[in-house]
What does this fold into?
Amino acid sequence: MIANKIDVNSINVDLDGSTFIIKYPNVNYSYWKNLIPYNGDKDIIIILSNILVQLDCTIMFSNQRLLYTHNMMYEYYVSEYYYYLLHIEHQWLYNNYFDLLIFKHIHNIKFEQDNPIIITPPKIKSKRLNHSKIINMFVRQVTTNMFTKKEAYIYSNAKTGEVIQSDDSNLLDTLNAKPVKEKRTKVVGVSLDDMTFSFKKKE
It folds into this structure.
């Protein structure tokens, strides 16, 4: 697969009817502060190779999959990969590592298709089905920079789709705090009996 190196916010790759969306991350100060420093293509290749290892949906822990192609963490890794990919200077290296990302994604999709998750529905006593709603709240995930060994915290909201990366480990309480309603001050009027009027002409 040959790709021309262009700086865009997202790339849509058609994979046999399905679309693989590669988004450029929201590079705010917090995101920029946690980026791995690099000096040229050689360093970027090492970074991309490490992200490809993290983008493996076949890894299991305690019989649980750590990553899925449809969750926010997967999208985060893909965006991070795309950020460094756009900073490669050599066109051939860009094409090669762009292909590696596509092949990794295809491999992950095939694995999920060949190994579907079988969910056993709970026994329902009542005839009515209670459909669970997605709660509007943030959850925290911890990731470690492989080079600096520094922890970064990723806060994601499944309902809004918002993802925030921060150094603050206690940001969860702030993000999930209920907005405080402003109290309206009651204006008390003055009774007519308590008012005094003067009709004298001022000199």
The chain has a mean pLDDT of 78.
